[in-house]
Amino acid sequence: MHGLVIKNTGSWYQVKTDDGQFVECKIKGNFRLKGIRSTNPVAVGDRVQIILNQEGTAFINEIEDRKNYIVRRSSNLSKQSHILAANLDQCMLVATVNYPETSTIFIDRFLASAEAYRVPVKLVFNKVDAYNEDELRYLDALINLYTHIGYPCFKVSAKNGDGVDEIKKALEGQITLFAGHSGVGKSTLINAILPGIETKTGEISSYHNKGMHTTTFSEMFPVDGNGYIIDTPGVKGFGTFDMEEEEIGHYFPEIFKISADCKYNNCTHRHEPGCAVRKAVEEHLISESRYTSYLNMLEDKEEGKYRAAY
Ligand SMILES: Nc1nc2c(ncn2[C@@H]2O[C@H](COP(=O)(O)OP(=O)(O)OP(=O)(O)O)[C@@H](O)[C@H]2O)c(=O)[nH]1
Ligand SMILES: [Zn+2]
Hints:
Layout: E1 2-8, E2 13-17, E3 22-27, E4 47-52, E5 58-63, E6 69-73, E7 81-86, E8 90-95, H1 104-117, E9 121-125, H2 133-149, E10 153-155, H3 164-171, E11 175-179, H4 186-193, H5 197-209, E12 218-223, E13 227-230, H6 245-248, H7 253-259, H8 276-282, H9 288-302
Parallel strand pairs: 3-5, 8-9, 8-11, 9-10, 11-13
Antiparallel strand pairs: 1-2, 1-4, 1-12, 2-3, 4-5, 6-7, 12-13
This protein binds guanosine-5'-triphosphate and zinc ion (ZN).
Residues 126-127, 129-130, 157-159, 180, 182-188 line the site of guanosine-5'-triphosphate.
Main location: cytoplasm
Family: Belongs to the TRAFAC class YlqF/YawG GTPase family. RsgA subfamily.
Binding site for Zn(2+): 262, 267, 269, 275
C-alpha cells in the first residue's frame, strides 16, 4: 500500500494512504539512505510503501525517491542533519517592506538556497494595509524586480484578508512550505488560510519550550483543493546549504544567464576583466541589490563562515 507521510512525531509517522485512510506507522529496521546522514530517515512529504499489520498500524518499508528535500543541521558539531520536509512543490516566503523590513539580502539568500534545493519560490508581501505611498512604490519596484527574474509575487494583508484568496488558489494541489522571519505575519497569514490551525501551532511551540526533543516534529495541514501546507515551528528559512564559491552565481538565475558571456568561465564576477555580469550591473540589466546580495554570500564564503542568516 502506498501513501504520503503527513505527520512525524519522532517515533510515529502518520501516513495518508492513496485510498484515503490515515495509518500510524513505524519504521521497520534500520533505514540508511544513500548519501544522507540524517537523524530521521523519513520526513513529511515522503511517499512511502507501507505494510499493514493486524493492529491496524503499519510498517514503512520503502521510501520513494525524493524530488527534493530540505534539511537542517542538528548542531554545528555533528555532521548529522535533520530532514525537515521532502517533495516540496513550492515554498512561500512571507516578506514585508516595513514593520519589520525584510532585507533584500535575506530574500536573496533565501531564493539562492531554494534554487540549490530545487524548490520553486513564490514571494508573498504581507501587511500592504500598513504601507504609505513611498513604501508601496518600493514594494512595486521589488515585485517588478522579482517577477522579472521569475519569482511570482503576491501582495496581501493577512490582517484584513486582501489577496488571501489568490494565495489559496496558488496552494491548490501543491505541497507548500511557509517561511519568513519573525514578525512578518506568517502565523496570521496561515491562520487566514486555515482558520483554527493557530491553536495547533501554539501547542507545538509550547511543547517545544519545555525542552523536549521535539525537533523531529513536523506536520502538513491539508488545504482546499488537495494541497498541503507545512509550517514548521522555529523554521525561519532554509538551513545552511554548502555552496562552492563558483557555485553561488548559479543560484541567481539572471546572473547565471549573463555569466555565459564572461571572459573566464570560472569568473566570480568581482574584479575579473571581461566580466559580463559587472557590465550588466553597470548597465542596470542586473539589479544592484541582487548583485550586492551575491557579493554578500561570496564574502561569507571567503571568510569561511558561510551560514544562512536564518
Ligand atoms: N498591519 C498588519 N499587521 C499584521 C498583518 N499580519 C500580521 N500582522 C501583525 O504582525 C505581528 C506579527 O504577526 P505574526 O503572525 O505573529 O508573525 P509571525 O511571522 O508568525 O512571527 P513569529 O511568530 O515571530 O514567527 C502581529 O502583531 C500581527 O498582528 C497585516 O497584514 N497587516
Ligand atoms: Zn563575471
